[in-house]
């Protein structure tokens, strides 16, 4: 290139080229001399240049790298310039890259016309002057930048429209909108994206707070109902003892009733269970903990420790669940939740001591053994967090009760504590029926509470169960419900509100009601 040409090229180069104005240009020419000349001219204009020696290499590089423009020779061995233009035109991504054809063909007009028809945007002779290259490059790149901005704008508009549809659909999470980078724009589109994000986040936080309140109310109601149902068990147990019927035999038949009832409800609700091999371990452990160990321990300990003292010790179940959940990181512990559990424990303790619970006759050994009962129930509560969610709650309880029946029946027969339908007459049969239904429904409710509100919140069933046991004693056994029990009930409700269900996770979706 002559000194005069270099001076002209330097004069045509912008004096303050910014990084945003720097382009990446692909030079495609089978002639090393021509390719080098074009690349140097491109670099002298302040752009980056890459070279390809034929059409095949050019298409490969275009597919792997990003280029703002292509300087394309027409006559090349193998895939010529026309072939490259045809391939780029059939590719949605490559068709947006502007191409300036460079040719020294004799029939220049015909070759230019054909190249333009195939998608080229301009023509440059091989014997070009630097100002001509600069002018055509700037025109092409300016059009490319404008087109890129238009495409980006329309893509961002499309993303905002999709975000609006997500919000309008009624359930969303802010991360689903995927408009974070759109909000960085400095124009009205960016401000609109910020409004969308702010709206979505505000609604999400509000709905999540409402969801927490609703789940607290639902959880409290379910805990009270489950405790009310569970609470009838001690009264039924005392009625059974008055009839001198072996408790273990009653448990076997009650578990059988619970299994049949829960199977029936489960089939109506969700059809037959689809039990997998991976589920067997859970059911066996659960049946051993709740259906066997707990039932046998209850029967044994109840003959040595007064029922009211067992109820008081059982109230520690909430603390044990809290400790286990924190230890194995099932739920997040907090001082507020611990305070809520403490309030419930104090309330129930006051009622039981007011009732004259506990006696000096209860040996320290048996009182210590009684701690096994709330511990087993705490383990049972934690186990429920891992139950197979694809199996209906009632069906899950039915399977567990059936397994526990199979395990306990041989023990009852071997210890001669098994009872048969004729024992005790119809009254025993009614007790077994009510006990079985109560146990099955209460455990199924507990499963639902654990799934929705968490194990720590569900652990408070112990408090409502104790208070309900006193109430059932009043109704069935003519016991008197003192005023302190009602006050304790109010304190237990305060405890529920402090403990709070587990917070909704990332799966939570907010909902905006939009009239259509």
UniProtKB/TrEMBL annotation:
PROSITE patterns linked: RESPONSE_REGULATORY (PS50110)
Keyword presence, Calcium: no
Positions of modified residues (4-aspartylphosphate): 73
Organism name: Aliiroseovarius salicola
Pfam families per the UniProt record, alphabetical: EamA, Response_reg
Keyword RNA-binding: no
Protein name: Response regulator
UniProt-listed PANTHER family: RESPONSE REGULATORY DOMAIN-CONTAINING PROTEIN, STRESS RESPONSE REGULATOR PROTEIN 1
Domain (Response regulatory): residue spans on this chain: 24-141
InterPro entries from the UniProt entry: Bact_response_regulator, CheY-like_superfamily, EamA_dom, Sig_transdc_resp-reg_receiver
Residues spanning the membrane: 216-236, 248-268, 280-303, 309-330, 337-358, 364-386, 393-414, 426-447, 454-474, 480-499
Keyword set, alphabetical order: Membrane, Phosphoprotein, Transmembrane, Transmembrane helix
SUPFAM superfamilies, A to Z: CheY-like (SSF52172)
